[in-house]
Each structure stands twice: as C-alpha cells, then as structure tokens.
Design brief:
With about 120 residues, this protein is α+β, with helices and mostly antiparallel strands. It contains 3 helices and 6 strands; from the N terminus they run H-E-E-H-E-E-E-H-E. The chain has a 6-stranded mixed β-sheet with strand order 3-4-5-2-1-6. The longest helix is centred in the middle third of the chain and has 19 residues.
Length: about 120
C-alpha cells in the first residue's frame, strides 16, 4: 500500500468512526491535469454530524499518517466541508448539497469505488 492509499484508508476510517455514509472514492491518478490523486466523498445527516466527521478525519489521518490538511473550507455552516491533503481531497456533504453539486460524476474516466456503510 503506497502513501496515498494509506491516506485514503485513514480518511475512510475517520469517516466511518462517526458513522458517515455513502462513501465514495474517486481515483484520479491516471487522469492528466487533476488537482489531486484521490477524492473521498461522504455524507453526514446534519451539520453537527458533518462537523464531527471532518474532526474525526483530521484526527485519524494525523494519527495514522502524520499528515495534516493544507486547507479546510466550509466549517462555518458545515453543509459541505472540503479538506485538502494535496494528494487527497475529502468532501463531507449534507445529502442535499452533495446532490446539488454532483461532484461524484465530474470525471467519467476515473475509477469510482463505493465503500459499503458499516451499519
């Protein structure tokens, strides 16, 4: 497992720790001119859960990989929080915001993997 895959795995662990759901990874490594190697996208049911998920991701990724996000945006209202780890960007959405922005479908030639919910 390479460093980027460890980063993605740690982010998923952090999401699952706070019962984030509808987790999708999008592998962009073989696509030219992308801003990152992986997207990790998930949902929380409320702004409070979105906040708990991003806190958990930040902590679990730091513990397991030693990495900290270079930027976090969206924490003011927690409708959509984006966490930039350079090689990976984590998006934590409320369901209606995820549906509206539809970033899951921006790269038709990417490798998309749905992660089963734990419950």
């Amino acid at each position: 497992m390479n460093e980027t895959e460890k980063l993605v795995k740690a982010a998923i662990d952090g999401i699952q720790e706070k019962k984030g759901h509808n987790i999708t990874t999008i592998d962009l490594q073989d696509i030219d001119d992308t801003i990152t190697k992986f997207l990790v996208i998930c949902e929380g049911n409320s702004p409070t859960q979105v906040s708990a998920i991003y806190d958990s991701v930040r902590e679990v990724v730091r513990q397991k990989t030693g990495q900290k996000p270079t930027a976090i945006d969206g924490t003011q209202n927690c409708l959509w929080v984006a966490m930039d780890y350079t090689d990976m960007v984590v998006h934590v959405f409320l369901p209606e915001a995820r549906e509206f922005y539809d970033i899951d479908n921006l790269w038709e030639d990417a490798i998309v993997t749905d992660i089963p919910d734990l419950d």
